Amino acid sequence: MLSKMDDFNLSLIYVASFVLHNKLKYNLNKTTLNLKFKKLANNLKINPEQIEYAFIYLKNQGIIYNNENFFDVNLILLQNLLKKFLKTESPKNVIIIQPNFEIIAKPNIALKDLFYLAQFSILKEKDVVYKFKITEDSLWKAFCSSWSDKKILNLLSNLTDKQLPENILFTIKEVYKRKAEILLGKIGYFIIAKKFLIQQLEKDAEFKKLILKKISPSLLLLDNTIPIIDIYYKLRQKNFFPELLTEKISKINNEFILKLNNEEIENLYSAIITLKEIAVEHKISVQYNILNNLINKLDKIIQNNIKSNAVKNSIIYQTELKNSIKQNILKTLKSYIKIPAYASPNKISEEYKGENPAQKLNDMKSLLNFAIIHKMLVVIKLKPSYKNEGEEYLAEPRYIYKDKVYAYIKNLKLEKSFKFKDINFIMLPT
Amino acid sequence: MDKPLIIQSDLTLLLETDSNLYEEARDLISKFAELVKSPEHIHTYKITPLSLWNASSSGVTKEMIIETLKRFSKYELPENVIFEINENIDRYGKVKLIKDSEGNYFLYSDDDILLTEIFYNKNVSKFIQHRKDRNHILIKPNYRGHIKQALINIGFPVEDLAGYEDGAFLNIELRNNTLFTNIEFKLRPYQEEASAIFYAGNSPKGGSGVIVLPCGAGKTIVGLKIMSLLKTETLILVTSVTAARQWLFELLDKTNLTEDQIAEYSGEIKNIKPVTVATYQILTHRKSENEEFKHFEIFNKKNWGLIIYDEVHLLPAPVFRMTAELQAKRRLGLTATLVREDKKETDVFSLIGPKKYDVPWRELEKQGWIAKALCTEIRIKLPNQLRYKYSISSDREKFKIASTNPVKIEITKKLIEKHKEDNILIIGQYIEQLKKISNELNAPFIYGATKNFERDELYKKFKEGKIKILVISKVGNFAIDLPDANVLIQISGTFGSRQEEAQRLGRILRPKKNSNQAFFYTIVTSETKEQFFAFKRQLFLTEQGYKYVIQNG
Q1: Among B69, B112, B77, B80, which Cα is nearest to B94's?
Q2: Residue B396: how many CA atoms within 13 Å on its side-chain side?
Q3: Interface of B with A in 479-508 (CB under 8 A)
Q4: CB–CB contact B549 A166 (8 Å)
């Protein structure tokens, strides 16, 4: 039985699981957020204040953070925080997995296993026992972090002495197989997927509005003026299992790349090199490592293929042709990626010298939105007033709400809000 | 011994089925808790005010309930559970519904303050004529059902002691041997038990309610037994002409009633005799929306002593309204599932009566009264040429494209090959798809436009084994009795309808002569809208205790 001492840690797990499996917008107002906490507290039969406190605590620790304008959880940090409490082992047969995708965990389950279960299933209820629900979405979320099908199945079989229902086994494996069928990356935005999936997206009445250009049979360039996370969830709504390219994703790329055929790999290779060049030229992304990683991997695969004579005569390996394709894509990309003109540091101050206040507000908002989407730092210079002397802040803008921008000030390590009317100008640091 | 029950503070009971004490615990808790779902390892029951009042009405005391919970509980009983049980049980019977010698109905209570509260409640007052004295309220004529419904909604369940009107006498006896096949006819123990609970020694405590039994478990037989206990003229309401004729057949085959005592009242034939079987369609038929339901007059054409509502979960709203005015008649609801897609389960409780008897499907399967079913979902891909069409279509169209995936025909053929010795039903939603399958397999097809005599003929041939494969549209979802069908291939369905899934499975659950094994296949196009809905349907069956196997086609 979990002790009273575990109560606080438990509420941290509840909140983390809740944030992980719910799409909570970062700029959600406090009343709505509190209502959601109240509902959660009701399901878990605990005091809503306990939930609210756990949420604030996790946010202050940086465990709950702003991921593309949505709340997300850094599970590694949370695990570190709970480390000393995660040592106890659960007895055998502590959970029961039902064919209706419900997991019932008995009260004597160890905190560690609750923590793990909450990562790939949704904690629905806590009473005498805990009730979790496995869904395709909860599995997909887990697979997007460090979980694999085998890891989940191992954990489940360690905690129960009953056979895993066949339909659940199938679903876990099936979702894992489909994971990363679409890779979603930033720099402009791009989608990498198998040719037929790309074709399907192109035909989709709603999704095709987001497509700027198809630059290779397996790579789409998307409108980058809306939050990438919206695209991510839009794909999920359409029953795809997208994966956001992050720094940690390299091992998954391997699996995905193996799903592509030679032609798709070659086209992808050229397109990604070009994307990287664009990224470097415009200093707009932190994703160079990902791209380098991808390039290296693709290069290796193509080299191997050449050694094995599989694609010996491929045109991509005739250097001149390869370069001309590259130039061509580069040209296409430049004309399609929507980078605001004022995003270039040299032009920014000129833009804001304009006298039209409405235009200035619009420009500021566009630039801030761009910086929020691409996680860029900006310089915010305030107007001098009786309160200040026109201070300058190097800040990472998080979200815009009504007449204010909320930003994280790096050197002060705090979040601060700025009224637009108090801002003199905003620029990208040189 | 490891105790099997987990009692949650929200009054949910989780019962572990592996325990040695499972059966004993189940029998006791089902007296005061509703079975919510029964997947493989843990069955969920819920104690509700209604379940407690039902228990109380059948003589179960709060002490007995608390004692049972303490006896089987794995962990300490949450305090609030005891409080809620006491509170709710104490409410039952505080208000009684009684009838005076002149046929007036009154609400009666010793607690005059409670009666005042009820008198001034605006949801109840519209059914009240006046307050006779401190302890009696006279209710308006014909509002017995309405007032019971309203009082339950505000948390004051009425103990209905007004009794029933006896209908015209009819001597109904069950036969010892069936008429047509001359084999011994005897009720199964659970059928006897269900009938006895409903009848309740002919006291006002019985006489109205719902009996929930799986398809294939012989609900009709329970109906016949209750008719033979009450010995009164009976009106039976059913879902289709085919079902009506099956009832008529059973009445002749298993009771002493003769052809001149029984009649069909449908779109085709409109006879009324001491036992009349009418369809819901004819009762709710009217030429325009503004017209009265003229066939409702059947309720007054005879002095019925019992009304049987077959497949009560499909009872149409106008018949519900009519039923509210028939509270003086005995009412029996029969169904395989209380799940209503329109969520009107509580109306069934208030107007037909409480659930009187329920057995989980898997229990009857274990006892061999219904066939064992193996449920398999076969997932297939959408062919590339349809992917384009699929991706540019609306959601509804997407569902149709996925449901009518032509690959399904190939899979169906493979399944037929695998089950060539078996009796196969192929059931689906889209007529064009079914026609195509019917043509390719050279198998007869029954759908809405098939004339009733043709349907009867085809069902007969299927029963006799002259036809091994029958393709049916959703007209075959309900109340067709094809005892030898042991394979059902579902090629498309109505979105996520759980009730349809249960009914379709029910088509193959009649006990089989040899291995008693039935096979239920659902063919689903993967990664499409259809898979999403199939998942919802599948969930319902898993919660009824069925294992689901998923295979790639």
Answers
A1: B112
A2: 0
A3: none
A4: yes
Nearest C-alpha of chain B: how many angstroms from A99? Answer: 6
Q: Tell me the β-bridge partners of A427.
A: A379
The two three-digit tokens of residue A115, written as one number: 């923590």
Q: Which of residues 166-195 of A touch B (CB under 8 A)?
A: 166-167, 170-171, 178
Residue type, B338: L
Which residue intervals of B325-480 are DSSP H helices?
345-347, 361-366, 384-391, 395-403, 407-418, 431-441, 452-463
Instruction: Locate all alpha helices (DSSP H) within A107-261, ordered by sequence.
Output: 111-120, 136-144, 149-159, 166-178, 195-203, 228-237, 250-258
Give the model confidence (pLDDT) of B190-206 as tens digits: 999 999 999 989 887 78
For residues B114 and A307, which has the higher predicted lDDT (pLDDT)? B114
**What integer is the mean pLDDT of B458-485?**
82
B377 has a chain A CB within 8 A of its CB: yes
- Residues paired with B262 in a beta bridge: B275
End-to-end CA distance of chain A: 57
Are A215 and A278 contacting, i.e. CB atoms less than 8 angstroms apart?
A: no
Question: In sequence order, what are the residues at sequence separation of 6 or more whose Cβ sits closer than 8 angstroms to the Cβ of residue B176?
Answer: B184, B185
More confident residue, B265 or A246: B265
Yes or no, beta carbons of A104 and B550 under 8 Å apart: no
Torsion of CA A263, A265, A271, A273, to 10 degrees: -140
Query: Nearest CA of chain A to the CA of B238: how many Å?
Result: 32
Judging contacts by C-beta atoms under 8 Å, the chain B residues touching residue A209 are none
Q: Count of CB atoms within 10 A of residue B291's CB?
A: 9
Per residue in A208-221, pLDDT tens?
A: 888 877 766 777 87
The residue assigned the tokens 């009273």 is A4
User: ipTM score here?
Assistant: 0.71
> According to the model, what pLDDT value does residue B109 have?
94
**For the residues B163-167, what does the mean pLDDT come to?**
87
Quote the pTM value: 0.71
Question: Rounded to whole angstroms, how far apart are CA atoms A101 and A122?
Answer: 11
- Pairwise pLDDT comparison (B331 vs A378), residue with the higher score: B331
H helix runs in A192-287, sequence order: 195-203, 228-237, 250-258, 262-282
pLDDT in tens, A70-113: 888 888 888 888 888 888 889 888 999 999 999 999 999 999 99
Closest CA to B240 of B477, B495, B501, B489: B477
Give the separation between CA B387 and CA A199, rounded to whole angstroms. Answer: 9
